[in-house]
């Protein structure tokens, strides 16, 4: 069985030294360990056993490094996106001197949902027929195996943060910093997050299977502040007067403000309480018009 396998850490024997590094061997095949890939302060001797990670360098040559990445063929971990190439896919950093490609074939069809630089993906490594390394996204089964079961009680309305690992029409899935598997229904977000995007939300339900339902929508109080800003900005753009108030029909509120009637009334009430607006004969005015 060949020991020198691309994408894995192996133990090899130091065979000979050159001016640019050492050649290691498994008794049959040799591989270069360049001086730049030797752990700082390490002295190697002929015949010594050394553990290295095997990969192909930027020129496609078999090479090795003593900087062992945690992500290998058969193991998974979080990797940061460092480059986006629309014709190829995205590149992630796993700790090697070269970045690893996640092929566009494994990414969403809609490019605006692709990971951006700084996003993180949960990946392993795979090789093609030419032994080139690629990163592959974790499947749902892998995520379920690594996930931590969330408690049933005491988590509602708490904040959870994490990176999105799966996109579906019905919603988005992410793994929280605690390791909880979280689901965001499409109705609980303003826009669909990217694959790999770091999101923050609040727990709205905990399930028997240890997963959490999460909303990316703001708390009602925070949303009221945001809605009030929308209404006040609309009002001032109309010169401080608008033909809408508490009695306005829900469909008109939705059309002009994108709000439910209840949200509109709460935000309008907030503006009135703050003395910024007043209502008269079905109209709303800014207070500076008095």
UniProtKB/TrEMBL annotation:
Cite the S1 motif domain residue spans from the record: 5-67, 72-138, 155-217
The lineage's top-level taxon is: Bacteria
This entry's Gene Ontology molecular function terms read: nucleic acid binding
Q: Which InterPro entries match?
A: CvfB_fam (IPR014464), CvfB_S1_2nd (IPR048588), CvfB_S1_3rd (IPR048587), CvfB_S1_st (IPR039566), CvfB_WH (IPR040764), NA-bd_OB-fold (IPR012340), S1_domain (IPR003029), WH-like_DNA-bd_sf (IPR036388)
> Which Pfam families did the record assign?
CvfB_1st, CvfB_2nd, S1_2, WHD_CvfB
What family classification does the UniProt entry report for this protein?
A: Belongs to the CvfB family.
Q: What is this protein called?
A: S1 motif domain-containing protein
């Amino acid at each position: 069985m060949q020991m020198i396998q691309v994408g894995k850490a192996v133990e090899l024997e130091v065979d000979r030294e050159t001016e640019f590094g050492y050649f290691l061997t498994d008794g049959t095949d040799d591989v270069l360990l360049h001086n730049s890939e030797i752990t700082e302060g390490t002295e190697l001797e002929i015949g010594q056993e050394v553990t290295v990670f095997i990969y192909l360098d930027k020129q496609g040559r078999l090479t090795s490094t003593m900087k062992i990445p945690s992500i290998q063929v058969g193991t998974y971990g979080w990797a940061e996106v460092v480059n986006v190439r629309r014709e190829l896919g995205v590149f992630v950093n796993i700790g090697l001197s070269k970045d690893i490609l996640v092929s566009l074939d494994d990414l969403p069809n809609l490019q605006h949902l692709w990971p951006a630089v700084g996003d993180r993906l949960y990946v392993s490594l795979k090789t093609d027929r030419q032994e080139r390394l690629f990163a592959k996204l974790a499947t749902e089964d892998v995520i379920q195996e690594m996930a931590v079961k969330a408690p049933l009680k005491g988590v509602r309305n708490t904040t959870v943060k994490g990176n999105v690992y799966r996109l579906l029409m019905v919603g988005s899935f992410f793994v929280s910093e605690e390791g909880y598997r979280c689901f965001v229904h499409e109705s609980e977000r303003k826009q669909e997050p990217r694959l790999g995007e770091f999101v923050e939300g609040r727990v709205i339900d905990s399930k028997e299977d240890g997963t959490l339902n999460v909303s990316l929508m703001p708390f009602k109080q925070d949303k009221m502040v945001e809605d009030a800003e929308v209404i006040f900005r609309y009002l001032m753009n109309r010169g401080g007067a608008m033909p809408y108030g508490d009695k306005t029909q829900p469909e008109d509120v939705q059309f002009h403000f994108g709000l439910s009637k209840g949200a509109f009334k709460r935000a309008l009430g907030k503006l009135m309480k703050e003395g910024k607006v007043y209502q008269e004969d079905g109209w709303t005015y800014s207070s500076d018009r008095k």
